[in-house]
């Protein structure tokens, strides 16, 4: 009686009737019911978030920036959320949202309060504050709704922060561009200032030299004109005497002219008297005319004398007037000469001061030129350090500043959905449950084989083969249903199936061993072991997140390696790790069979406790 015959005998026993066959079929589909239904229900819950009712409360009334731009950030956020369709959003009031969340009509609410836009623009008014978005949740509706709402608000906050940062960066870069333009103009101005200062310095040097020459010349003139006031006074005195003499001479000329005029008048008067006397002597008109003609011959010299005396008298008058004017001018010159001499002295002093001032001006202009040169270099360095940008480049830089990091996700192995991510864990758990329920029907040790005195190893293999065969059928069915019906398709079909068969065989061997060694307590221990592996296998969260005292259990229990191997094969990851997982499961399989053989060997000896066990299932 070999192991195969022992297994076939047990298989015939459990399939002897129609109902027994139905029981076997039911046992085959137990893992499928467990893993398949769970994965089907949780295949892709994120795809149905658009059916999750959520409230949206918008109380923001907008704001106006310092440059007059109108922004309505709250309304913009609300419109984007409504348009996204990520959730079943309903816009409502704050009071209605809170009431409906308490009643369970909404899972969460987002409230954008009044002043939201104004707070966002507070930085430009030097009043920076964080804008608030209120999240209203109720864990009595669903604990995960709070997590989902938090994720939503984080995304909204990041989007708003990115947009605000982009606008602020754009304004900042525009300011830098304007600053650069100003620096360029300032540098040009500094260059012109430097050039002008050099010109002023050179001109000041020439001015100082000219002022020195002027001072020297004025000093010479001052020496030369020192005695001019006395001499001009003497000249004025003499000119006045000449004027007085010329006046007297002009008076004589006037008297002479008057005498000549009197003589001419007397001559004219005597002619008339002569004519009368000749008429009295009895001379006719012709005779009188002849006598008068002789008389008139003396009038020509007299007229010439009168004309000449009149001319001389007029010239003497003009001379007297000119001499008087010359005397007045000399008097004025004599009066003004001391002031002129003093002015020359002051001009000489002023030329000295001008020379000293021009020297200082030259020195200052030199310093100004040096400072303007340094200013020009500094401004030019500032221009070089301030980037030259255009509108397109500023927009790109602002966008990069607002969102500086782009996530380039490179996945060595990727689960297609949430359900696919849980599939390795629930397939492994289904394999354990499938193996566990089999021993509600299958006997772990064949009493007939014990009675026939078969070897313990043969008995152990015979008791394991029958549930292992049914377990293989379980794994084929569950993988086909999960892959085709639930649409969680492994990358490596054959590898996944082979690994599932090994996992099922190993888990069945372990449950078989517990039943063979301990009987009814072993069946209970198999249930406890399943619970322990639920929390230590790292099927949902990474195993490092479990409490540290449970870490050793993760490394020593077989489901950890089953989950890890299924992940590699289903997602197409680091297949080299599958080899180690296979070796560990194979070691558990061989070890469990050996311990089962030890249990079979013990059961060859009948004891009172075995005849009347304390616990009977």
TrEMBL record:
Signal peptide: none annotated. InterPro entries: ABC2_TM, Phage_infect_YhgE_C, Phage_infect_YhgE_N, T7SS_ABC-Transporter, xxxLxxG_rpt. Residues 24-161, 375-598 form the ABC-2 type transporter transmembrane domain. The keyword Glycoprotein does not apply. It is a multi-pass membrane protein. GO terms for cellular component: membrane. It is found in: Membrane. Its main location: membrane. Coiled coil: none annotated. Keywords: Membrane, Transmembrane, Transmembrane helix. One of its GO terms (molecular function) is ABC-type transporter activity. The chain crosses the membrane at residues 20-41, 418-442, 463-486, 492-512, 524-543, 578-600. The keyword Cytoplasm does not apply. This is YhgE/Pip domain-containing protein. The lineage of its organism: Bacteria, Bacillati, Actinomycetota, Actinomycetes, Propionibacteriales.
